[in-house]
Amino acid sequence: MTEVYQQVPAFIAALPVPSVTSKETPSAEQAEVMRASFTFIHKFYLEFESKKDGAPALLNLLGLTYNDRLDLSVSTGADQVTPLSTTYIRDSVCEVPAIQGVIPEDMKMVCNDIIFAK
User: Fold this and answer.
1) pLDDT tens digits, the chain, 118 residues: what are they?
2) Three-state SS sequence of the chain
3) What is the dihedral of CA 117, 11, 18, 60, to 10 degrees?
4) What's the pTM value of the predicted model, to 2 decimals?
5) Is-contact 16 70, C-beta < 8 A?
6) Contact (Cβ atoms closer than 8 angstroms) between residue 7 and residue 57
7) Closest CA to 8 of 46, 39, 32
8) Any idea where the domains of the chain sit in the sequence?
9) Contacts of 12 (CB under 8 A, 6+ apart)
């Protein structure tokens, strides 16, 4: 089972999820995989002492890690990058229209616990 807890989050972290700044919405198939992935992370990583192990997968599901889909380039200045904060995640990222109906409501409440776990 230990391998499952390493392989599944690695798979989730590699999913091609539209960025938080994209107007693109997930297809029905992508949405179903994303919904199951949110559920997996919620079920298996919120209870662990090392919640941070689920952070890379969760960041990808929220559209925060796929640099090829973000509006960033080599000329992007530091003042143009929004720093991750608990407020930004809760009030902005978890409320992006593209993932409404995909991200479970109870997951919106615990995203910060996983992303900012130490």
Assistant:
1) 678 778 888 999 999 888 877 778 889 999 999 999 999 988 887 766 667 788 889 989 998 875 544 555 666 667 766 778 888 888 888 998 889 999 999 999 889 888 888 7
2) CHHHHHHHHHHHHCCCCCCCCCCCCCCHHHHHHHHHHHHHHHHHHCCCCCHHHHHHHHHHHCCCCCCCCCCCCCCCCHHHCCCCCHHHHHHCHHHCHHHECCECHHHHHHHHHHHCCC
3) 10
4) 0.80
5) no
6) no
7) 39
8) 2-115
9) 37, 40, 41, 57, 58, 60, 61
- Look up residue 58 and give its two tokens: 């969760």
Are 61 and 11 a contacting pair, CB within 8 Å?
A: no
The letter for the amino acid at 88 is: Y
Tokens of 88: 């930004």
